[in-house]
Amino acid sequence: MNDSEGELVVKIARKAVEAEALDKDPTKLDMPEGFREKMGVFVTLNTFPDKELRGCIGYPEPVYSLGSALVRAAQGACHDPRFPPLRGDEVDGVTVEVTILTPPEEVKADRKELPAAIMVGRDGLIVEKGPFKGLLLPQVPVEWEWDEETFLCHTCMKAGLTPDCWLDSQTKIFKFQGEVFAEDRPRGSVSRKPLE
Q1: CATH 2.40.340.10 fits 3-102+178-192, yes or no
Q2: Per-residue pLDDT reduced to its tens digit, 165-180
Q3: Taking the model in full, what pTM does it have?
């Protein structure tokens, strides 16, 4: 995805967030042809200037067109169950970040070799065991300065499992990559966020 498309995905997500928080219908959004392709996407809302998480919802699998997934994820981020619903008077105090994902692929490696099969600064992770599932985006371990093993442990905990469950052969580990675009301030300029 080029930088101008990245800027557009953030602007579309911003419009959808504002419409949802202000209880309005999202107006018809003009989207380029390429936005019809099915892609995984996450929309993250952070408080400004504190950069505290305010909501993050998305679709790891490419089940919707990029345009549809973007609007749905933006609306969902306003109602992240970890937080109260985003109110209209909060819209001016949050930044919008969009992560466009590659399809997840299962990591087939000996359990002890798993940390070497993933890379902080490139990969996001999904951990799955029975009904439990957890996902962390590629930017999370970078922001927290985790190594690969710590990243695996935190993804297991996100799934509601023990930190070392990645060592269990019954646990499935998937990795994916993401391109991240974010506002520098509410309604501000949008740029690609480096992960390394």
Answers
A1: no
A2: 999 999 999 999 999 9
A3: 0.92
